[in-house]
């Protein structure tokens, strides 16, 4: 036990003096949320943009009233040319507009656009809606003129009641923030984990350390706890910074309401503890096999794809499988999702996944301890 | 006492040690002399339990290094083949770390660290971080790490490589001092003068076997040469004649 604490203390002191490690632990937690906040900021301004829609209107002189109506609805004729990268949205009004309207015949108005263009979708929709609205207006006039209550042609009135609570809308966007928090335990301790394993080998001090009278388990545990400390430090930093930074993002403008309570953050942190140990154990496992720092870095960047793929995959594929509650990584992710949606957390699943994560971490550490007794691994024989 | 008994070790197709046997006694400096690739480092790594012998055993004070490596290492001070220092720690912190790994705590630890710093005369280095140290300074730190827990056995793997005259002299003085305190010292080298100047007994190794054993004088007498170097060449060159 005392050997373990000796290793932990020494490694921690060593790591905290390594500017690269400290900076790596902090920068992810610091710049990540900031970057995400900026991205959301632009997303929101785009979503809530109420500027006029500019389209090409051919045959304006044929239907001045419609053009005026469109202008009132914020759909105006484009003055300049279309950019080469955009498909023009063209509305063509026929010459016999006046004639057809006065005879109460249907008028064919052509809207030419690319409905698959993501960016233009809201624009197109607004044009469609404006024309629909004008069309209902005319029919209402006609019916009234003929002494008919316009309501007879509206037998069904569809009332849309959006059941998405403010919180659950938020969950959609916050999902990616959650992935970010989970990944923070993988990122923040990474540099330390590499430095105390592959770095120790590269600096030629591994052989001497292994010749000391302590078990390899003590060495591995001491080192793992050091890297875990850094990884949890990064987690705390992102947990604290995310609510602060997101307070400045106008989420309420798109009907979102994000509430990070202190209790929730503490719970999230507790859930991250076993995950941090697991992340560290994985990283130590890989980098103890590498010959030097650089090699370890290369392997670990591949390793990082696993948690990223797992959490983003679940997030965006909207996977719903009960097993996800019980596995390491996905279990924490599901619990976070429930927390942020304000739903009840699957307590059993969360506890089981925490225990599974811890068990996996300890098993991996046991294996590393055995690995360090192997001449093949230690001396590369 | 260190007792090496019929050690055999094979790496893939290379026979590194071929039933190697010798003893290093307390209060004596035993030199393990051999050309590059004779198996010196392999032998020492088996003694401190980093490598497993195929057959045979290495015992430190009766403790088998392969069966109970941690127990064996408690009695060992090691100056390894590769001694990387922790460049972000000061000498004092570094030496204290290894004292701690040997189970020395608080006051006891501080005193041990103070003592070894004094013995090696590295007071002015003690609170500096080791980044940028010269080879001689690094050797002293490595030596301090090996000696801090006052081991009864000291094993050094080519300690004098890369050292200037002054540093070599300091090293010799330290080893003689340790010998006077009854420490069992085993060190490997391929430098003749060093072995001749220091060792009470020399074990000449070639191809993983003991080629000859004795005091430097005995080796010279055995081969009929005046200089240990000539004796060494003769022993290595006419392997079979000596062994018989």
UniProtKB/TrEMBL annotation, chain A:
Transmembrane segments: 21-44, 170-194, 230-251, 263-286, 298-319, 347-369
Protein name listed in UniProt: ABC transporter permease subunit
Organism, scientific name: Idiomarina rhizosphaerae
GO molecular function, one term: ABC-type transporter activity
Keyword Kinase: no
Xref: PANTHER family: ABC TRANSPORTER PERMEASE, ABC TRANSPORTER PERMEASE PROTEIN NATB
One Pfam entry name: ABC2_membrane_2
GO-annotated cellular components: plasma membrane
Keywords: Membrane, Transmembrane, Transmembrane helix
TrEMBL record, chain B:
Name listed for the protein in its UniProt record: ATP-binding cassette domain-containing protein
Sample GO molecular function, one term: ATP hydrolysis activity
Domain of life: Bacteria
Keyword presence, Nucleotide-binding: yes
Keyword Protein biosynthesis: no
Domain ABC transporter per the UniProt entry, residue ranges: 2-232
PROSITE patterns xrefs: ABC_TRANSPORTER_1, ABC_TRANSPORTER_2
Coiled coil spans: none
Family according to the record: Belongs to the ABC transporter superfamily.
UniProt-listed SMART domains: AAA
Entry keywords, A to Z: ATP-binding, Nodulation, Nucleotide-binding, Transport
CDD domains reported in the protein's UniProt record: ABC_NatA_sodium_exporter (cd03266)
């Amino acid at each position: 036990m005392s050997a373990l604490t000796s290793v932990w203390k020494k490694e921690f002191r060593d790591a905290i003096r390594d500017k690269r490690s400290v900076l790596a632990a902090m920068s992810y937690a610091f710049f990540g949320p900031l970057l995400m906040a900026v991205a959301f900021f632009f997303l929101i301004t785009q979503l809530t943009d109420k500027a006029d829609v500019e389209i090409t209107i051919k045959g304006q002189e044929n239907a001045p009233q419609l053009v005026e109506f469109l202008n009132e609805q914020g759909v105006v004729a484009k003055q300049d040319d279309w950019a080469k990268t955009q498909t023009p949205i063209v509305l063509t009004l026929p010459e016999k507009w006046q004639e057809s309207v006065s005879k109460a015949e249907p008028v064919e108005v052509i809207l030419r656009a690319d409905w698959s263009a993501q960016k233009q979708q809201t624009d197109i929709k607004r044009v469609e809606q404006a024309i629909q609205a004008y069309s209902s207006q005319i029919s209402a006039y006609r019916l009234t003129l003929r002494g008919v209550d316009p309501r007879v042609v509206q037998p069904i009135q569809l009332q849309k009641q959006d059941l998405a609570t403010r919180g659950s809308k938020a969950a959609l966007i916050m999902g990616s923030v959650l992935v970010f928090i989970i990944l923070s335990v993988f990122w923040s301790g990474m540099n330390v984990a590499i430095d105390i394993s592959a770095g120790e080998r590269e600096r030629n001090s591994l052989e001497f350390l292994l010749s000391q009278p302590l078990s390899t388990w003590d060495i591995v545990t001491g080192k793992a706890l050091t890297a875990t400390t850094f990884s949890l430090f990064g987690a705390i930093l992102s947990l604290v910074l995310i609510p602060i930074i997101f307070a400045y993002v106008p989420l309420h403008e798109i009907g979102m309401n994000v509430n990070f309570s202190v209790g929730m953050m503490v719970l999230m942190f507790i859930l991250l503890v076993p995950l941090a140990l697991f992340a560290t154990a994985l990283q130590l496992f890989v980098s103890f096999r590498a010959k030097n720092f650089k090699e370890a870095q290369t392997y670990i960047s591949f390793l990082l794809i696993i948690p990223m793929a797992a959490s983003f995959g679940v997030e965006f594929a909207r996977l719903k499988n009960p097993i996800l509650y019980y596995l390491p990584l996905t279990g924490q992710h599901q619990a976070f999702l429930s927390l942020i949606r304000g739903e009840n957390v699957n307590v059993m699943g969360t506890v089981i996944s925490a225990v599974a994560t811890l068990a996996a971490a300890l098993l991996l550490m046991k294996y590393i301890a055995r690995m360090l007794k192997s001449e093949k691994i230690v001396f590369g024989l | 006492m260190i007792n090496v008994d019929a050690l055999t070790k094979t790496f893939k197709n290379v026979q590194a040690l071929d039933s190697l046997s010798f003893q290093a006694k307390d209060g004596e400096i035993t030199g393990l002399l051999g050309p590059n690739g004779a198996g010196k480092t392999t032998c020492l790594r088996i003694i401190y339990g980093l490598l497993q012998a195929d057959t045979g055993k290495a015992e430190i004070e009766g403790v088998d290094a392969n069966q109970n490596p941690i127990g064996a290492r408690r009695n060992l001070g090691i100056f390894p083949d590769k001694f990387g220092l922790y460049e972000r720690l000061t000498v004092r912190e570094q030496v204290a770390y290894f004292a701690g790994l040997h189970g020395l705590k608080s006051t006891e630890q501080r005193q041990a660290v103070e003592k070894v710093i004094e013995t090696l005369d590295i007071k002015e280095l003690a609170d500096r971080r080791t980044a940028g140290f010269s080879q001689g300074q690094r050797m002293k730190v490595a030596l301090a790490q090996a000696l801090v827990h006052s081991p009864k056995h000291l094993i050094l793997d080519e300690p004098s490589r890369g050292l200037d005259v002054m540093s070599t002299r300091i090293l010799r003085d330290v080893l003689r001092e340790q010998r006077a305190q009854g420490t069992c010292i085993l060190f490997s080298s391929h430098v003749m003068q060093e072995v001749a100047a220091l060792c009470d007994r020399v074990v000449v190794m070639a191809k993983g076997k003991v080629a000859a054993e004795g005091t430097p004088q005995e080796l010279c007498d055995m081969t009929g040469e005046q200089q240990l170097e000539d004796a060494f060449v003769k022993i290595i060159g006419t392997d079979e004649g000596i062994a018989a």
